């Protein structure tokens, strides 16, 4: 396999008498010969981006409605249950989606961050459209028909995705090997990155799940509180596109460190003391930008430290671990709220500290690649 950059250090280990290359990237310039293998655009490439974005619109876009469902269940079907118990429903949705693995485009190299940003912005757009649909449909046609109407939209978008998405690289016929998933965890850099994503996601889902309930506890009207979800997700479109495009120029790890630190500060310094409507709305928008960048950059970070044929497997392995953060974060937050008799103080601290730990681990991962020197990473 050709080296991906002029300064990639290859390390090998034995597995059934074959050498399996792994890599450690140290500077930003990709190998021009390999770069030419990527179309970096064209009809099929951008149709694949559109189809993949539609997939995330109907999957993560739906899950991004958790704040509305959390409050609706608490006051309707599941009003006899605690916030922690109800939180297992949306957290389980996120867990099974992330644990099942994510796609990685093979159409882009130099523009990978921008392309990935457009793809994952589909989840943000879904997180804007679906909540607004639910806010208006549930009072008009009831919960059951609101779900059916959303399901028809999901069906149409999945049909579009099936018609437009294609792989540039022919499928490799090889049996599934458990070691293919476990092998990356022998690399300290990969372990550090996976841990960073785990902690960042652990904290990130606290505001996503509880922002509506938190706002209601401070006197915001239900109608306005429900609109915090599309505000958050609408702002995350900018967080999932602009930082990704910037990352192609200044380095994916560099941007991720800034945005994860920004998110941690927002939660601890802005959301924790926020009580008025204006402060909570501003937090929702800014948090959408910060958390959107974190989600949008994660696949590109996995690709950055992976050999090309293993990008999909290694990204799936990282996300399968991070799925447990999505599964447990919201129930932990709900338990902290219940223990404090409805106060969100310690749940917010848990979310902010988790994101801060994730930021520090992103710094450690970057340091394992190039040290602390200024470089595009």
TrEMBL record:
Statement: the UniProt record of this protein carries the keyword Transmembrane: yes
Domain Major facilitator superfamily (MFS) profile: 189-377
Membrane in keyword set: yes
MF annotations from Gene Ontology: transmembrane transporter activity
Main localization category: membrane
Transmembrane regions: 45-69, 89-110, 117-139, 145-165, 189-212, 224-241, 253-272, 278-303, 315-334, 346-364
Example of a GO cellular component annotation carried by this entry: membrane
Pfam families: MFS_1
Membrane topology field: Multi-pass membrane protein
Protein keywords: Membrane, Transmembrane, Transmembrane helix, Transport
Intracellular or extracellular location(s): Membrane
InterPro entries xref list: MFS (IPR011701), MFS_dom (IPR020846), MFS_trans_sf (IPR036259), Proton-linked_MCT (IPR050327)
Protein family membership: Belongs to the major facilitator superfamily. Monocarboxylate porter (TC 2.A.1.13) family.
Protein name in the entry: Major facilitator superfamily (MFS) profile domain-containing protein
């Amino acid at each position: 396999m050709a080296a991906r950059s002029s300064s990639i250090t290859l390390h090998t280990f034995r597995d059934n008498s074959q050498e399996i290359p792994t890599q450690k990237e140290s500077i930003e310039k990709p190998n021009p010969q390999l770069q030419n293998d990527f179309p970096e655009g064209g009809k099929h490439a951008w149709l694949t981006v559109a189809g993949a974005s539609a997939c995330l619109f109907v999957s993560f876009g739906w899950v991004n409605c958790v704040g509305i469902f959390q409050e609706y269940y608490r006051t309707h079907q599941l009003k006899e249950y605690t916030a922690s118990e109800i939180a297992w429903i949306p957290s389980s949705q996120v867990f099974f989606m992330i644990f099942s693995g994510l796609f990685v485009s093979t159409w882009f190299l130099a523009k990978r961050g921008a392309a990935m940003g457009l793809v994952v912005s589909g989840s943000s757009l879904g997180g804007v459209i679906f909540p607004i649909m639910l806010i208006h449909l549930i009072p008009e046609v009831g919960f059951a028909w609101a779900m059916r109407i959303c399901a028809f939209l999901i069906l149409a978008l999945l049909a579009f995705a099936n018609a437009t998405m294609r792989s540039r690289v022919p499928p490799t016929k090889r049996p599934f090997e458990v070691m293919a998933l476990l092998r990356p965890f022998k690399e300290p850099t990969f372990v550090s990155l996976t841990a960073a994503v785990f902690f960042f996601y652990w904290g990130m889902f606290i505001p996503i799940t509880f922002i509506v309930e938190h706002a209601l506890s401070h006197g915001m009207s239900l109608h306005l509180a429900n609109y915090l979800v599309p505000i958050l997700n609408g702002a995350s479109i900018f967080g999932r596109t602009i930082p990704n495009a910037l990352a192609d120029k200044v380095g994916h790890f560099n941007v991720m460190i800034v945005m994860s630190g920004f998110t941690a500060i927002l939660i601890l310094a802005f959301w924790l003391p926020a009580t008025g409507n204006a402060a909570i709305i501003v937090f929702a928008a800014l948090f959408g930008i910060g958390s959107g960048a974190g989600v949008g950059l994660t696949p590109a970070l996995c690709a950055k430290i992976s050999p090309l044929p293993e990008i999909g497997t290694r990204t799936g392995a990282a996300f399968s671990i991070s799925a447990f953060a999505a599964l447990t974060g919201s129930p932990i937050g709900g338990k902290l709220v219940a223990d404090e008799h409805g106060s969100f103080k310690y749940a917010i601290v848990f979310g902010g500290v988790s994101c801060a730990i994730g930021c520090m681990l992103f710094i450690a991962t970057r340091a394992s690649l190039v040290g602390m020197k200024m470089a595009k990473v």
